[in-house]
Amino acid sequence: MTHDVVIVGGGIAGLTIAWELARAGRDVVLVEASEDAGGMLRRGTAAGVEVDLGAESFATRTTGVADLVADARLAVQLVEPAPSGAHVAFRRRSGRVDRAPLPRRALVGMPADPTAADVVRIIGRAGARRAAQERHLPLPSGPEPTLAELATSRLGARVTARLVEPLCRSVYSQSADSVRLSSVHPVLWEKTQVLGSLTAAVDALAPAVRTGSAVRGVEGGLWRLAAELEAAALRAGAVIRTGAPARTVTATTVELDGETLAARAVVIATGPTAAARLLQVEAASAPPVGLVVVEVVADGFDSFPVGSGVIAAPDVDSAAKALTHVDAKWEWAAAALPAGTHLVRLSARDGRHHELMDAAGAAAAIRTLTGVRLAPTDVRRVVPVAWPDAVATPGARATVTDAAATRGIRLAGAVAAGTGLASVIPHARALACDLASPPIPSEGARHVR
Ligand SMILES: Cc1cc2nc3c(=O)[nH]c(=O)nc-3n(C[C@H](O)[C@H](O)[C@H](O)COP(=O)(O)OP(=O)(O)OC[C@H]3O[C@@H](n4cnc5c(N)ncnc54)[C@H](O)[C@@H]3O)c2cc1C
User: Could you tell me the CATH number of the domain that includes residue 152?
Assistant: First the structure.
């Protein structure tokens, strides 16, 4: 039997394509290696509350998630995070670790106005004067530098160290040394070329809201989005097979253990390393993304000392590079937790995940990032999670994209679209439309985008 489409990978990308194709009447089979679909949208439990162990919010720079929820009539409630915003922790010249709210108007850590009070609070007056010169510097020609080189040459080392690098590491799980602005924020890069200045481009594009609040979530956890989408795909007639790892693929076949599925089209919607393996090409993998969800009982957290969370500059010695105070960020979490109990997510620095896995290590990282005095006994539980295939190195992305294109295999998910639901979902829907012939009729909400 030849199916219309076989999809390998049941993360949000694969599920989106399965739902789109099934509702268009196509014969679609999705195979997922693990026992549950959802990929990096995964449910866990801490302090008796269901929480996200992977992605926990989505950027509102596209309407991709909201459109999907509306079009698929998913039974999820989209919610705003608390307006308090996030902080950055950095080391002052005195050696003391300080914390300050992230600038209200900035993109990828680059401020729209370097002399704004909330920017000066972080980079100091000298740093602000240096960064303010950016508008008068000519844009160099030649190949695009790395994001770190770009930010340092135009805005100064302080902006890179205290804003761009921590933002880049926490949002994209990569150092600003290893990415280019055109890949992490193509719109900002294009605007910079047009206006001839980074700060002018940020000024034109940055929303008038605090960094960290241009996101939304799902009441009860983002994992519900994948769970509801899976149910919608099944209702529409998609076949979803979990515990079914694909071993190799061609343009028309997917090899499972002891079985071959035939299809008119094959989509790979796995992480980058799994995609490289399926395509039998060599691609450099990035280190795993490690985090822990920590249950804390401490008065110091009742006042939400760092708003919704804090990201750490590289010179802050901590095994965690970022912290999310879950119940400060999401009202639904605060309402579900017993009084005095808090949930904290710690994202590990590369190679330091193990240091966060016990109460003493988690407490030390929380103390450093928040300034709250916390004893190991205040940490009641630590839930560790590792995501081995979450980040695509630029090299892996190029290798996998080329190999898939050469062989006539379609590629979806973060490896093709870039990290994050705001990119992955619209890309997956466009791919599904392309695969469905005659085209899937669009619905009103999708024209709004
Ligand atoms: C800790 C963390 C926090 C994040 N936070 C956010 C956030 O707040 N906001 C945001 O927008 N994004 C966030 N992201 C990124 C976001 O989760 C991803 O960009 C998105 O979920 C990628 O979806 P995907 O479908 O491409 O891949 P995945 O979710 O990785 O799904 C791929 C699926 O393929 C399966 N698979 C792999 N190999 C095979 C095989 N051989 N055969 C069959 N199946 C296979 C895997 O088991 C997996 O289920 C976060 C990611 C992590 C790890």
Answer: 1.10.3110.10
Residue 352: give its domain's CATH number: 3.90.660.20
Domain assignment present for 82: no
Residue whose CB lies within 8 A of the most ligand 1 atoms, among 40, 52, 169, 256, for a mutation test: 40
The two three-digit tokens of residue 66, written as one number? 């909201």
Give distance in angstroms: CA of 276 to centre of ligand 1.
Answer: 15
CA-closest residue to ligand 1 atom 16: 420
What pLDDT does 338 receive? 93
Q: Convert the pLDDT of each residue in 219-274 to its tens digit.
A: 999 999 999 999 999 999 999 999 999 999 999 999 999 999 999 999 999 999 99
Decide: 115 in ligand 1 pocket, CB within 6 A: no
- CA distances 348 to 159, 162, 317, 358, 372, Å, are 22, 18, 12, 13, 19
Rounded-to-integer distance, Cα 74 and Cα 406, Å: 36
At 50, is the secondary structure helix, strand, or coil? strand
Residues 7, 62: one domain? Answer: yes
> Is the CB–ligand 1 distance for residue 10 below 6 Å?
yes
Whether residue 7 sits in one domain with residue 20? yes
Q: Is the CB of 424 under 6 A from ligand 1?
A: yes
Q: Final residue of a domain: which of 150, 177, 205? A: 205
The count of structural domains within the chain is 3
Instruction: Identify whether residues 115 and 195 lie together within a single domain.
Output: yes
425 Cβ inside 6 Å of ligand 1: no
Distance of CA 42 from the midpoint of ligand 1 (Å)? 9
- What spacing in Å lies between the alpha carbon of 270 and ligand 1's midpoint? 7
The pLDDT of residue 368 is 96
Residue 322 CA, ligand 1 centroid: distance in Å = 19
Q: For ligand 1, atom 26, name the residue with the nearest CA.
A: 413
Query: Which residue carries 């795993």 as its tokens?
Result: 288
Spell out the residues 6+ positions from residue 238 whose beta carbon is closer than 8 angstroms to its own. 18, 19, 21, 22, 28, 29, 30
Q: Give the model confidence (pLDDT) of 420-440 as tens digits.
A: 999 999 999 999 999 997 654
Q: Where are the alpha helices (DSSP H) in 303-383?
A: 326-329, 331-336, 359-370
One domain, residues 40 and 182: no
